[in-house]
Amino acid sequence: MNDMKFISFASNYYQYPIGKVISAALPVQLKKGFPLISYIDQLSLTNHGKACSTSNLKKSAPKQAELLEILKIKVRLNEKDLNNLSPNWRRYYKGLIEKKLVKKDRVINNYRVNQKYIRPSSGPDLNSEQANAVNTIINEKKFKTFLIDGVTGSGKTEVYLHLIKNTLKNDKQCLILVPEIGLTSQFINRIIKRIGLIPHQFHSSCTENEKFITWKAIRDSKAEIVLGTRSAIFSPFKNLGIIIVDEENDVSYKQQEGFRYSARDLAIIKAKHCNIPVILGSATPSIESINQCKKNIYTKLQLTERAGEAKLPSMHLIDINKNKTKDGISDLLLKTMNEHLKKNGQILVFVNRRGYAPTLICKSCNHIEKCKRCDSRMTVYQSKNSLICHHCGSKEKLKTSCHVCGSEYIALGQGTQRIESALNKHFSSEWIMRIDSDSTKLKDSLDKALEAAKSGTAKILIGTQMLSKGHHFSSLTLVAIINADQGLFSNDFRGSERLAQSITQVAGRAGRENKKGQVLIQTEYPDHPFWETLFKGGYKNAIRLILEERKQTGWPPYSYIALLRTESHQKKFTWEFLKKSKLILSSNNSTIDILGPVSAPMEKKAGKYRGQLLLQSNNRKILNHCISSFIQEIESKKITRRVKWSLDIDPIELF
Ligand code: ADP
Ligand code: ZN
Ligand code: ZN
Question: Which of 37, 400, 443, 549 would you label with 160, given CA atoms 20 to 30 Å apart?
Answer without folding.
Answer: 443
